Amino acid sequence: MPFFGIGKFSCSGSRNEPKEISVLNYSHNNLTYVPEEIILHERSLEELFLDANRINELPRWLFQCYGLRILCLTDNEFQALPPAVANLINLENLDISKNDIREIPDTIKCCKKLSIFEASVNPIGRLPEGFMMLVYLKELYLNDTFLEYLPSSFGRLCNLKVLEARENRLKNLPRSMSRLIDLERLDIGTNEFDTFPEVLSSLINLHELCIDNNKLEFISSDIGNLKKLSFFDLSKNKLRYLPEELGECISLTDLHLSENNLVGLPDSIGRLSNLAILKLDLNQLTKIPTSIGGLNLLYELVLSHNFIVEIPSTIGLLRNLRTLYLDENELSFIPADIGSCSYLSLLSMRENRLTYVPDEIGRLSRLKVLNLSANLIQYLPYSISKLKELQALWLSENQTKPLIQLQQEKDKTGKRYLTCYLFPQEQISRKRENLKYSAINEINVRKRYLDDMRIHQLYDNFGHNLSKDKNYKKPIDPNLLIDYNSRDFLNNQIDKIAFNDYENTTRQNSIRFTSDLPIFDHGNLLLKPIADNYNTEQIKNIYLDSPSGNNYEREKAFKVHKSVNRMNGI
Question: 149 with 164: CB under 8 angstroms?
Fold first, then answer.
């Protein structure tokens, strides 16, 4: 049986005297039982590693190894942690993750020296009250453990520095957690929080906070109390706005806000002078505040999949910017100030409305990747020929090589420019200018692809009292709500929606289509503004129970707001 052992022994004594082994490693041995020879080292053994085997039971004699400081049992087939664990009074690090353990014995409280406890990926369900007596605990990992709540006495773990409780069913945090003043990292992502836990503003020593993939609609203004917060992940929530007080988190270096419903950013975001990474993709932003120029340490900026029509000229103040993503927005031009971002190495502006590229882009001497595909550009400025480090210039989604040969030509004024067979660009996805359909009709056509999140987003956007006009009302299919467990969509009598009110709403919140993509699952229904001169009769014609011919085929070609690369299939 292969194992790794580390011994400690004296030079005196007989050669036949057994070594005092302090470390035994039986990891990845396909074991089905705990080797009995371990008991030979019960007095000297301090570290035992049994991870990645097929063991399903711990023998009683193992708990006679009173000197054990580290016990690793991860990735086995244990269904219980014996109460005899109380005998391991010197235990400092216990890892029981990735098993099938359903209960932690209350006797765990006897392991007074325990400082690290890893129990992730077990169907534990709850923590025993005795667990709160482990006052020297510094790191606690409870990811994917079926937890629905943390005990009200959880604050007794006053020395805790790291708490991870991802992928559970938590809806709130106990008030006693305000006593965890030494907590530095808290991960409660992928739970069921719909309100920002008030207790978080008391954790003034937090450095990392992950509360992503929940149902948050707002952040408390008390967030400004977290002066030491450096990493903040709020992605995959339902946030519409951010409080001005966010700008008081002056230590922030990483701010992740992807996949929310943000329609604007506070001006105070420019006060985050230490920010290095800012991710705002997959939101509903139409503009960026000029204060963004204050982020002079910003390294990466992701603004893809929004509705941004203009980038402020203060972008040029981001002298340390290396990566800038602006894909799938509504940009018709890029400010010349972009040329001042002298450290920029990747610039992606795929699928916008760009008709030209400013000459100043030639000043980006460190640029290695430039993506301009799916725009309306007629030609490139001659200054691009000065980009000696350029390794990829993407001009079309069908381009087979990262770099293609460009030819030099002159316009009528004698000004030089660069062109190739890919110019002028033809933006396939922009051949749909008149294909702006009703979001309600989209529900009827593709209802089997709708989930709770999108139903609630429709509710949020249409409000409580849309049924004012008796004409052109269209019922919502109740089966849709039964299929997707969203009955509360109709709790406020939104069983019918008046066409006239809906038309006014969709001028600010409508959806866009394309003829080149199949149907995809997506989280944001209400995307692109309808032009003011859009014909009302056109909406009425498609606002029917039985969509006909071309309209139906076009609806099948609905262009999702989220990237195709994110989808795993329907």
Answer: no
